[in-house]
Amino acid sequence: MTEKSDNHANHVNHSQPKDYPLIVEKDVQIPLRDGSVLYADVFRPDGGTETFPGIMNIGPYQKDKLWRPPADLEEAPNPYMNWETANPMWWCPRGYALIRVDSRGSGKSPGMSEPSSYQEAVDAYDVVEWIAKQPWCNGKVGTNGVSYHAAFQWRLAGLQPPSLKAIIPWEGRADQYRDQAYHGGLFAMGFIMSWHTTNMAHQLLGKPRSYNPDAFNNNMLWHYMRNDLDSGFWRMNSARWELIEVPVYSVGNWSGYSMHLRGNTEAWLCAASKHKKLRIHSGTHFHPFHSEEGRMDQLRFMDYWLKGIDTGIMDEPPVKLQIRTGGAAEPYAFRFEDEWPIARTQWTRFHLDIDEAGGEIDGTLNTTPPAQERSVTYGASGSTKAGVSSSSTALMLASKDKLGTSFWTPPMTEDTEVTGPIVLNLWISSTSEDADIVATLRNIGPDGEDVWEVGQQGQAVPLTKGCLRASHRKLDPKKSLPYRPYHAHDERQWLEPGVPVECQVEIWPTCMVFRKGHRIRIDIQPRDGIGSNFYGHYHADYNLGAENTIYSGGDRQSYLLLPLIPPKA
User: Fold this and answer.
1) Helices 261-270 and 148-158, interaxial angle, to 10°?
2) Which of 111, 269, 467, 513 is deepest in the core (most CB within 10 A)?
3) What CA–CA distance (Å, rounded) separates 192 from 455?
4) Contact 543, 528 (CB under 8 A)
5) Does 331 share its domain with 248?
6) Which long-range contacts (CB under 8 A, 24 or more apart) does 353-359 make?
7) pLDDT of residue 49
8) Half-sphere exposure of 408 (CA within 13 A, CB side)
9) pTM greater than 0.90 (yes/no)
10) 248 and 154 in contact (C-beta within 8 Å)?
11) Last residue in a domain, options 297, 312, 337
């Protein structure tokens, strides 16, 4: 079994499958330090006196719930498949034990439900150390999983359990405030409401009710909305980068711009670990994780740190990026880099040049700053007539008329690669005390139509997005970087009606080779626009009846900072 990537040597020095009998232990009780217990399923190879490393997961998705994968998944379905976790039928023959744990108040585990919490991390610590002491374990434990099963790993690693030797957070949010709950200060209502309601239904309206009728009893949504500024509440439940010293393989998805990708790139920038790797792919939330290529990356990393096998993975450049070229149904090719952001990046300002001509596009993106200041004004109200209703429908839905303003580049004269983090520097005012900024980057083909990418749920998506509530524009100067503004989110700086303010909008990283003849388009909108899908935000009543104005030129330069990547020398 070999891997080919970016002309690097093939590696065959990794665990090979053996004909171990599979031992399946259901509903194993794991004791915790406070006297509570969690229930787990253990899948392990029967190697007699041979010992194996463990790979664990903990979460509320029910360890017993069978996942039926799509027909095009590269791993065949079997009775042990479980959502966002590794497949025992592949890992156990290669000499690993897999341990799936129901977190407190979910599945079969009793207790108070606290999803994505510090308590869950403490419980995970106890589970890791319990695994390491089992007679079938070699004393080394890793973590590997997608989404929720990735996010818990950051909190666990920050507690530094002695037996935790490697983590693979595969598409995992890390900052609960900035990555999941509040994008630029905007409450990410769409996904959170759906996630919370769906998981409560799975627990209380499905089979688990018969054995855990009090499961998923939490007040998560209230706590999320009550803590609408950053605080200790969020810090306790987020990654603490300075404490994460374990080897990390941080894996992101270019399509994960509404929740997970930021966590994976921030890990590369901020985690204290001396042994870090960053991989970013594209496509759905599950196909890459279960692909043969993806599993080999996981195996080679775990083999190195949990078995001491020199698989060669740590000799490769630390950054592995899937370079998107637009609209492909099949996976794009990977390219290795030595750093992130890429050192040879040409950071280029594309200024908003407002032409005041009206229509769908209000101007162009030019590298020359406009000498004269111009402005464009648009309504911030929802689908109903301005000011008529303050219902949830009006606050959530987009306008039936033109939504915000848009700019694009002239057609590309040659193929142009944009790979890395992005900043929208925007001068804006409102007739209200606040303004929502939702920026969407799009790839427009020569025919004027969008070139879509595959989203995490298989839907068509644009390139990336970024959000900011103007009253949250305050930056943390110690954490901000020229290419990644870091907003404090610790106070509100209200707008004065009609007075422009300068905002730096963090647009999550992307990768695209814009082909000759294509255009880069940015939409700047007062609410969720194209490609938001499941990830809509709550747009509060300060939008109703308001008008926002964007300025660019002269002393108020609004621009898009793009990471242009020249070819390798």
Assistant:
1) 20
2) 467
3) 18
4) no
5) yes
6) 353/407, 353/552, 353/553, 354/550, 354/552, 354/553
7) 96
8) 20
9) yes
10) no
11) 337
In a domain, 264, yes or no: yes
Let me know if residue 12 belongs to a domain: no
Q: What is the pLDDT of residues 364-382, one digit of tens each?
A: 999 999 999 999 999 998 6
> Measured between alpha carbons, how far is 217 from 224 in angstroms, rounded to an integer?
15
Identify whether 58 is part of a domain.
Answer: yes
Tell which of 337, 364, 396 closes a domain. Answer: 337
Residue 3 lies inside a defined structural domain of this protein:
no
φ, ψ for residue 193, nearest 5 deg: -65, -45
Q: Are 501 and 371 in the same domain? A: yes
Q: Which domain holds residue 68?
A: 22-337
Are residues 67 and 203 both part of a single domain? yes
Q: Which residues have CB under 8 Å from 206's CB, separation 6+?
A: none
Rg (CA), the chain: 24
- Closest by CA to 344, choosing from 420, 400, 277, is 420
Q: How many CB atoms lie within 10 A of CB 75?
A: 17
d(CA 549, CA 352): 13
Alpha helix ranges (H) inside 54-206: 88-91, 118-132, 148-158, 189-204
pLDDT per residue over 513-559, tens digit each?
A: 999 999 999 999 999 999 888 899 999 999 999 999 999 999 999 99
Q: What distance in Å separates the CA atoms of residue 57 and residue 38, rounded to the nearest whole number?
A: 12
Q: Around Cβ 218, how many Cβ atoms within 10 Å? A: 19
- Please check whether residue 548 is in contact with residue 556, taking contact to mean a CB–CB distance below 8 angstroms: no
Cα 5 to the chain's mean position, in Å?
24
Please list the residues that pair with 347 across neighbouring strands.
Answer: 563
The helix/strand/coil state of 376 is: strand
